[in-house]
Amino acid sequence: MQRRTLLQAMSATVLPAPKLARAAAAPLVEGYKSARCGCGQGWIEHLKPNGFAVKARDVDDPGAYRRKFGIPDDLGSCHTGFVQGYAVAGHVPAADIKRLLAEKPKARGLAVPSMPLGSPGMESPRKDPYDVFLVRADGSTSVYQHYSGK
């Protein structure tokens, strides 16, 4: 009997323990981009290795989705995403999206207007300074993150 108990104890220490919880699923970003502009695909390729699942759609007017999600035209770019109730317009870095999802502010989302060189999807040896704007629920904005371009 002691031998059986000893073998059971030994096998318990050698065999891997069952997984108690599954890893959380990657947040899904629904992306709306123009097929004519490669930077939207570049932004999507930035998101994937940074912990996001992406379902991308080529659409005729990505700006229509930006407006639908409440992001003003002056903050627009050529692609827009939607993740966990937030809009993400333009070349927003994955780190800022993760921060947004962790903080959960009362906001419409984040936006990077235009196409700054050096931002995700606009990789270049040149890195321009740019801001990521938080678009609050009332439509007002504030700088959420500044990138110096260095």
Explain this structure to me?
This is DUF411 domain-containing protein. It holds the Pfam family DUF411. By secondary structure, the chain is an alpha/beta fold. It has a single domain (26-147), classed as Glutaredoxin. 27% of the residues lie in helices and 28% in strands. The protein contains four helices and seven strands. It has helices at residues 2-14, 38-47, 62-68, 94-103, and strands spanning 28-33, 53-58, 79-83, 86-90, 107-112, 130-136, 141-147. A seven-stranded mixed β-sheet has the order 2-1-3-4-5-6-7, sandwiched between helices. The longest helix is centred in the first third of the chain and has 13 residues, at 2-14. The termini are far apart. The model is unreliable at 9-22 (pLDDT under 50).
Write the layout of secondary structure elements.
Layout (H helix, E strand, L loop, with lengths): L1 H13 L13 E6 L4 H10 L5 E6 L3 H7 L10 E5 L2 E5 L3 H10 L3 E6 L17 E7 L4 E7 L3
Parallel strand pairs: 1-2, 4-5
Antiparallel strand pairs: 1-3, 3-4, 5-6, 6-7
